[in-house]
Design goal:
Blueprint (H helix, E strand, L loop, with lengths): L2 H17 L11 H12 L7 H28 L7 H25 L6 H4 L2
Helix pairs in contact: 1-3, 2-3, 3-4
Amino acid sequence: MTIWKKTKGGFFVGLGYLLSPLSWWNDAFFNLPIAYGFAFAFNWMFADSFMLLTVVGYWLSNIIGILMMQWGTFDLFLEQRQTNPKRDLLLGLVGATIYTIVIVALMITGLIEPPEFLSQT
């Protein structure tokens, strides 16, 4: 296995971890600013949908994180593997969707407070 493949795999695992639901403590530094930027960028198309767009951006950043971790892990630990992009995407979608639903439900019930920059919109 080449050093390039291991380096690339380690980079993807590290960055994917920061974006994934596994690093819930890091949401304020990565996922929420990405979600806010996503909502800000697309709010002109969907007026009065800022909070919904923020949730969609948050969900997408979690999916990207999970997928990056999967791809990086494959590069780190497997010499050869058959790729199955549909399965990888499905696993990422399911995991990120469950996590996003839980976070939104906790915000709706008031068990956790949304960040100030989201509650002011």
